[in-house]
Amino acid sequence: MGFITGGFIVKDKETLSDGEILSLLGRDKFGTSNHVTMEEATSRKFYGVGIARIANLTLVLGSDIIFSFETAQLSKFDRALEKLSRNSEILCFSINSVAETYAWSVFQDGKRTRVKCVAEMKIIFDLGEESEYEKGLEANEAGIIKLIENFTHLSFMEILFEKNIEAIAYNK
User: Fold this and answer.
1) Does the pLDDT value for residue 149 go beyond 80?
2) Has residue 171 been placed in a domain?
3) Furthest-apart CA pair in the chain: how many Å?
4) Is 156 a domain residue?
């Protein structure tokens, strides 16, 4: 397949506004450019932030969203996600199939409970207990897709290609 994308998924107990999400990302000045398909929002050519909602999920997509997958130290963004996870559960992910780099983190009950980063089949960073969503998965593109499916209870391929779900694209 060859994805180069990333983002985070929030299991909402309370719906976040797009403005709150952009503020969380430090992109308050981004304006709406258009609606894009989920396929476009996860493509290598997509620059910006795509926000989509499905059932009780908020999907925030953008290959340049920066997470701290390689350190125990929390970034400002991680601390904001911890706060947000008091009322929801959050899965952050990064897929770069070209560089064979895959990473994810899970936030629950106000804490970052899991982080793992793998590059070229070597573990770069591994913190916390394996989450219920990743048990038995390999750290590769198929594994990350399965992780997302376990978290959302939805088929990732259906979300991207079959359900005609649109994301609102925000750009500079």
Assistant:
1) yes
2) no
3) 41
4) yes
